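Protein entry
_____________
===
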Amino acid sequence: MDGKHILITGASSGIGRETAVYLASQGAKVILVARSEDKLQHVASLIGKNAFVYACDLKEQEQIAGLFQYVREQNIMLNGMVHSAGAAKPTPVRAESLAGMEETMRVNCFSFFELGKQFFNRKHSQKGSSIVAISSMAAVRPMMGQAAYASSKAALNSIVEVMAQEFIKRKIRVNSIMPSYVETPMVSGDVRYGMNNGIENMPLGVIDPKQIAYLTEFLLSDRSLHITGAAIPVTSGV
C-alpha cells in the first residue's frame, strides 16, 4: 500500500472509517469521502498528512463529478477505490415505498455505478488499479425487512461483475466483499425488522470491521492480481 492513492467512500464511520485508518497505517494516501465534513475531519486527524477530505452527497451525480475534479486538482492518480458508503432502513414490504427503494438504490448502487465510470477514466486512475465494493450477504440471503437493502446489494454485485469484464482492458480489477453482520452503527438495536435478523446465529461472532479492512487491503494489493469479478462472502459461520 505504500504510496498508493485510495479513494474511500463512507469513510466517516463503520467499515469505511476502519478501512481508511488501516490502509493509511500501511502507507496508503487516502481520499476520505462522506457527507459530514466534521466527521471526515475527525478521521483525517487520526491519520495525519496522508489524508485528503472531500465531503459530498453521493446521491447527486454532479457531486461525484466534483469529487473527481478535486482529485485531479490535487494531482492525484488513483490506484484504488473502496465503495463503503451505504444506507439501510429496514422496512417490511407492506410499509416500503418506491421513494424509499430508490433512495437506498441511489446510495448503495447507483453511486457506485457513477463512481466506477469516473474511476475508469484514464485521467483519474492508474492502469492496474483495483476497485472494491462493500456489498452484503443480504444480496444472496435476504432477511425480513431487507427488500430495498438486499436488492441494492444484489444489483451492486451485478455491476461489479460487468465492470470487471469491461475494465479488464486497463487491467483494473473489480471485486466485492459480502460480510454478514459487522460491528458498525448500521447493525444495532433489537427489533424484528432490524439489520440484526439472525445475528444470534453467528458461530464466530459479529465481525470486527478490521477483518473487512484486511480483506480489502488484499484485494487492493498486488497479491490479488488474478482476482476480479468476485463476490467474496465473509459469513462468520451464518
Q: What stands out?
A: The chain has a mean pLDDT of 92. The two ends are 31 Å apart (CA to CA). The first strand starts at residue 5 and ends at 9.
